[in-house]
Every structure is written in C-alpha cells, then in structure tokens.
Amino acid sequence: MNNSSRFWAWPDELRRRGILGINQRNVDIILESNPREFYPRVDNKLMTKEICQAHGIQVPETYFVITEHSQCPKFLELIGTRTEFVVKPAGGAAGRGIVVVAGRLGNNFFSTSGRLIEWTDLRHHLSTILSGLYSLGGQLDKIIVERRIVSHPMLKSIAVEGTPDIRVILYKGVPAMAMIRLPTRMSGGRANLHQGAVAAALELDKGRTFGGVCRDRAISEHPDTNHPIAGIELPFWKELLTAAMKLSDALEMGYVGIDFVIDADTGPVVLEANARPGLAIQVAHGQGILPRLKYIDSLPEADRTGENRWNVIDSIATKSLEFWRS
Questions:
Q1: Whole-structure pTM over 0.70, yes or no?
Q2: 83 to each of 72, 111, 147, 169, 191, how far by Cα in Å?
Q3: For the segment 251-266, what is each residue's pLDDT rounded down to a tens digit?
C-alpha cells in the first residue's frame, strides 16, 4: 500500500501534523486548563442548563425532571399529549442513553427513524437511567425530558432521520476548531460518529462545511442522500460562536467542547458542554488542533477576551495549512 492510499500515519507523522493525542490532551491541556471543582458544571446537564439560562443562552425547554424510580409510572401522565420530546440522562456522556421521540400512537412512541418504542421498553429505559447505567462513574442519575429541536431546513439535505449538531472546541475562551455531525441511516438518526454519523469540518470564520469523514474514511457526499457535504454555510454562525464564547466564560474552564443544534425558529441552542471533548474533530479537518492551541497560547491575554476574540477567529481561519505545519 502506498502512502497516498493508506488511512493511517506513523507517530512521528502525527506529531508533525500537530495531532493532539489523548494522553497529551489529558495531561497537558485538560489537567492544566480545567479546575476539577468546576467539572459538575458540564457533567451535570441540569447545572449546564441553569448556567446557560442565567447568561441568556438558549437551551431546549425542560418539560420535567424525574429523580426517583417511583415517578417512572407517572411518565405518561407527565408527558400528557405531547408527541415529540427527548429523554436524556442528566449525567450522561457521548450521547449514551438519549431517546428522541418523533411520533406517538397511544401509549407507544416512534423514534426519528420510525422504530416503534413500546411503553414498557421506555419505562425500563427510564429505570436504567436512574440506576446510573449511562452516567459518568455509574452514579445514580436523573432524567431530563425536554423539547425536541426541529432542525433548520438548510440542514435537512445533509442529514437523515435526525438532527445535525455542531461542536465547537474552545481554548482559553477562544473558538479553536469546529465541526458538524450529520446523522445517517447507519447511525440510526443519531449525530454520533461512533455509530456511523458523518463529520464535516467547518471554516471557523464563516461556518462553511468542507471535507467529510464517515467511519474514519474520507467522503465528499452524504452516504444516504448523495448530497455534497462541502460548501454549506450554516445559518446563525456568528450567533452560535457568540453563545459558545459566552458559555465558555461562564463555565470558567480553559478547554471545553460545546454542542449546539440550530433550531428552525430560534437559531443556536446549546445541547451540552464537555470538559473532555473527543479528538475526532481533527480527523474531520485533516489537521491537528495542537498548533491552534499553541497559537492561542502565544497571544496576549487581551487578545483572548471580549470582542478581540473575533480577530483571533479570523486569524485562525485565514492562516494557511503551511503555517499550521511549520
């Protein structure tokens, strides 16, 4: 196999490309940037929501919260006549345990892909969430039942059976890299890369897509719709980055990933924040994030705060690939 066709690299090649590995991320970035006492601000989605609301940042409307097993039988009463909603663990991570309901027939429900979810199965799922099956460290958990976001129509051509989400990674309050995750049939309508969703890189200044990766292979079209992935400029991009920077400041964490969806009516909505954002975003971009972090580190603190950050965003977006590899 020649070098042009292989989809892997030697360790020294990864270092030259500025790839941030998991050990370096944990020790040099996360440990140094994220105070341990602030982790509950992102690990607990209810607390994240409260912080967002206190700072005027949009989050999905919470219908109700279940905290005890004895409340599970009352779920149907609490949900009332609603036909669309999302069930998620308050302490979950990586999308585990989330159920998105897009339809209803009596006491049974349908997922975004049309799969039948019987009430008995959903009730069992509620119990597993409370028992901590999906929470970090297996701790007892709570259940958030919230409004299902209807994705902006511009994104429907590059997503199947689900809602795309956007991840922005911020370092010292400055957006450093961003991508959009697109559901596929393989991913069951979830924007989860490990289950087969597509990742597309985003130009940081414009919010425009380029590239595309699915199952660690470069692609140029959505595998289900054959729609080109590149060249789509996301709506509300400046508003999304503004919300990301505002939340990063409020969380007081130096390295954080913030996930958004773009609502058809209201624009960017925060889904969650993560103190340990994954590294797949580098695969989507075809380059490492480490040089960007070093560049942000090299700037005076005044350049990394307030409105001055827009100049840094433009600078990161317009620097050549050769600059990041130097």
A1: yes
A2: 18, 11, 10, 34, 21
A3: 999 999 999 999 888 8
